[in-house]
Amino acid sequence: MSDDEEILFTRPTKTIHYGSLERQSNLLDIQSSSGDDKDLKVKELGQIHTSNEYFDLENEISKDKAALLEEFERRKKARQINVSTDDVEVKKNLRQLNEPICLFGEGPAERRNRLRELLASLGENAITQKIAEEEERKQLQKEQESTWYHEGPESLRVARIWIAHYSLPRAKQRLQTAKELLSVPSATKASRMVELQKKLQSLVPVCSQVGDTRPVSHCCFNGDSNLLLTASWSGVCKLWSIPDCELVQNFRGHACQVGGVAFRNNVPRDAMNEVAMASGAADGTVKLWAFGNEESIADITGHIPHRVSRLTFHPSGRFLGTACYDASWRLWDLEQKQEVLHQEGHAKAVHCIAFQDDGSVCVTGGLDAFGRVWDLRTGRCIMFLEGHLKAIFGVDFSPNGFQMATASEDNTCKIWDLRRRQPIYTIPAHTNLLSDVKYQKNSGDFLVTASYDNTAKIWSNRTWQPLKTLSGHDNVSPPHFQNKNIAGENHMEKENKNKIEMEAFENDNFSAIDFINSAYTANEYENKEDFVSSLVSELQIYVQDVSAVLEDTSQEVIGNMPKIVKDMDNLRQEAATLQRKMREIHVEIAQVQDSGSCLANLERLDTLKTKLQIAKQGLQESDGWGRLTSELEDLLERNDILGGCEKLSILQKSLIAQMNLPGQNEREMHVEEAKNKLEALASPQVVKCFSIGDATEASKYVDMFGKMDRLPQLKQYYRTVQKTGLQGQWQEIVDLAENSSDVRFLREFYHHLLEHFQKQVSSMTADTLNSLQPTREVAITNFLKRHTDKLEAISEFSAANQFFGVTLQKYLQNSGSTLPKEKLAALSKAIYDYFQVFIIQYGALEQNLLSSHLVTLGLGNQVVALETVRSLGNCNAKVIQAASNALQRCETITQNCAIGPLVTVLNLFFREYLDKYKKAQKQLDATRNVPNVNFLQICTTLLQHLGDFILQVSTFEEEVTEKLLATYEQMCRQESSSFQYKVLRKQDVSELKKMKNIVNERHAQGGENALNVWSLFAGLLEVVKPICAEIHDTTLASVFAPIEVHLRNIEPTDLSSSSSDLPDYSFAPQEYITQVGQYLMTLPQHLEPFLLSPSDTLRRSLEIADEKYSQSSTCGDVLLSLIAEECCALYMENIYKIGSLSNTAAKQLATDIEYLASVFDELLGLKLGSQIQQVAILLRASPEKYLSLSAGCDPKLVTTIRQMRNIISSE
């Protein structure tokens, strides 16, 4: 029977009997009996209920049928609704319908069915409608939260344009002043700051004055700091002169407490009926005052009835800003005589306001603990000052234009930076709330804070350190800080000498007699009447203060009573509500405890249900497993890859559903086998697709392999194909390079790699480079065998490596992909490390190049010494240039990794070049005896060329040292992942470290020894010093040669004349000694062009040749002294060769020696040697006095001269 066929029902009988057949028969017997028997049977049978009611099944079955049809219709509709098979999407749809995304024990299939049933009951468009409603709600919320503006009056537009024109030039001037301040030396600024800090730290009270009979609430200085305006709770404002604190004028007009006063800038004191001051009171009135008039010239009543706490004039003087307790601040235009801006924005009352010196912005602080910075030119709030915990009572701008200070009830002062839009420092200023803060107006170097802890403090605006604490007030309220004056307000301050301790009234044991006597004794009044009148006036003032305080307190208490009563009623209602809710919670807790076991049973049943559903689904999938596997095998046999992939996906889902059923391992093996077959079928097409670069086909295979969980294998296919393609390109490029001399083949291959990597960044691996055949090392080696200029080729290959590394690094950075350090290190190693073998060969190649360069200079072809010297002078710069080129090549090719071997090569190169100087010296020495007037000049020129070479090597060594130290530092901090060449060999590392230590030692020694001219090239000193010394000796020998010729012509005087005893004046110098003297006299003229003012290069050579040159400022003096020493030595040598001397010959020889001494002394400024001086003394001594005059002389010399003169010893 179908569900749609009609079912016929018969009407039942009206009487329905309850019970068994036995009871029915017993009942009939009872009805047929009578009397007592009937009653007895009834008792035995019991009460049998009978009823005449009947159950109308027709209506009930009609309702069931309608419900059943409705359920069938709903299920039919649900089957037609398409629901996503993605479980994530299903959960998202349930969340959009405000339904739980997962029920306890619910699986993906049940979740899909639940979503389908919900959509069938709510409608297929339920999700779309929900999304549209949510978007509409968000849009409405966004519109409600957006900032709105309304059009202001024309006066506001005029005011903002005027402020813009006013503020821009002032801002420009402020920035120019700041730039000029930067040019001031820091030492000058520091000294000024120290001086100002000393002045501030030495501040003392200048004067003290009773301000009013009521507390003084606020004060401010005028621009010249010669006037002080005070405000009082009495409603009277007073003008005082500074520094004598004399009352100048009273301003009466306020009917209640005045909370703030302000001066207008640049108003002369003699100006009448011009607004010069302003004051604001607690009743909301603002009054404008002029000098010389005790009544206000204008009133502003726009704030009534709200309190005006602070007010200030705009720097231009045209506008007045007021802070009001209606949670707003206002801007008044004194020229247009109207309110141009009524600005809201604070949640509570606005207490303070301050303008920037430029006049472009202002800052306000409120009782909501927040501050706001407003742009007066646009009306925008450009900065929100959030950070204080309690109300803000004071704000001020620094003269620099971008810093602000705020004083708060949380006992702190915060410094804000308008440029950074954040606080830069918090000063824990006081132990009680801060009432105000002010910056120093001229430079902003300091700021002062006032607090209810009865002190005011001065702070440095740079280090935020306290500089001075100003104490003495009973209660300190807002200060005003001008250039040189600091004013604070107190409730009532008197002179210290007349101050009376009013605290005595608070003591329980107060005695009026003791109080009066102690006050009289402490103040030492001469006249009792004056003391009594003074004391009475002070007591009256004190009583007035107490009365005022009591009145204010009582008014406040009376005003707060209704609020307190209301708060108490609210508390009682909340307490009753809380009690009722607590009782309800207790009842619910008891119910929960009773239902705990039921919940546990429900949870166990739900778990069991879930397991049964999973088992049911698994059995269903198991029934269809054979059919799926056979269909998959048929598709694979027909090579239907896409169909097989879809069928395999269904098979994998079935495998998951049968997770806990028997035979799971066999099913998993069957699925893996199917994956392998499908992969084998698809692999040829995959390789072909990757080879031709078909992105569309590749995406299909990505999807297919992703469904099979074989994406790693697909990636391996891709890498293999790409690697094969790159290998083919590399082989082709290498083959072309073997048949040509193009050195750029490596760079060409790198370009191919970069194009490939730019398209496929993820395929960049070190294995791509390491697997190339032939390897890059082999390809480069083969190329170098065929190429003549090997160094040029290596330079090109190194440049190609560096170009590839740098470009690849840029690609990685621009692509946004971040590779792990391990992969980066492997990639860097693959790019650079293979080149180490050529870096090792670099030293030998560089040495060959430098040697060949030295041969091209042609220094071995000269025979004449003069030509050799000239060639050496021309070749110094060429040799140093060749060394510089080598250093540049080292950096280009090896990135200075081979700088250690290069230093060794350069040492050999310079030694080889110095051999040319040694050869020139030998040529000069061989021609020394040949007469040549220019010989001295040639020797000097050779020394000068050698010194020039030494200085150039020193300069070049500094450049090498700088690069060596930089290379060492880079080696110490370089990472394995850095893209550059690295020093890998241990011997290179140790050599680099050794050279670094040598350089540091030389730098530590400094200039202690002039010979320590080099560090890295210190070994050259062993070659240079002998060459310099030999050239110097050759020069000295050429100069001394004429002297040597003359001194060898000493001839003893005839002995026959020895008997005559001639006086001393009869002797004259002989010819040989006069010739020596004449030569010595002309010698400075010959040496003057070369040695008296030598160049730095010549001096350096002479200092290396002989240390005496480094101890004298004039090299000519040193050379003359050396000639003199040599002359004395040769003279002594010839004297020793004389056999015997008569007295006359002795006197003649002594005369010759004295002549030589006079030449040395008068013309050369030198002294004879001590021995030859002793010879002169001994030669002139008479035989009788010889022994006494020889005292102190060399004994050997005394004996020799005595034997020459044939003097008989008396001993």
UniProtKB/TrEMBL annotation:
Protein name as annotated: Putative u4/u6 small nuclear ribonucleoprotein prp4
GO biological process, any: mRNA splicing, via spliceosome
SUPFAM superfamilies membership: PRP4-like, WD40 repeat-like
Coiled coil: 561-588
Molecular-function GO term, any one: U4 snRNA binding
Domain Pre-mRNA processing factor 4 (PRP4)-like: 85-137
WD repeats: 251-299, 308-342, 343-384, 385-426, 427-469
